[in-house]
Amino acid sequence: QVQLVESGGGTVQAGGSLTLSCTSSRYRLGSFCIGWFRQAPGKGREGVAMIDGLGIDTTTYTDSVKGRFTISKDNGNNILYLHMSSLKPEDPAMYYCAAREFSDCIVGSWSERHFRYWGQGTQVTVSS
């Protein structure tokens, strides 16, 4: 059973920054396509960012977070990060780490069906 565990959520003021982390005890995050999704109350889950496991570390972002969020990974410590800056009132959500079974990401598709493993999520709240 692959387990992904997110951490780092919390409350931050609008315009502030927050960094989320995702780890796994049994899944080598650096070898597979991994990403972050989020789900706000009353809304569907949406893809935020993803990074490949091909050794190229190509990143993809949804338009609403481009220039504000950065996805990265520490392969040595098996950690995936999402650094979020300039947080806006529309960013609060439960943020999920997700992983594919393959190294390549399906660029242009945020379909959840491409990601087999999911964490339990970490809550991000933005105060005005």
In summary, what is this structure?
This protein has 128 residues and is an all-beta fold. It contains no helices and 11 strands.
How many runs of DSSP E, i.e. beta strands?
11
| % residues in beta strands | 35-45%
Which percent bin holds the helix content? under 10%
What shape does the CA trace take? globular
Q: Residue-averaged pLDDT, rounded?
A: 95
Rg (C-alpha, Å): 13 Å
Major sheet attributes = 7 strands, mixed
Write down the secondary-structure element order: EEEEEEEEEEE
Q: What structural class do the secondary elements suggest?
A: mainly beta
Enumerate how many helices there are, as a single number.
0
Q: How far apart are the first and last residues' alpha carbons, in Å?
A: 40 Å
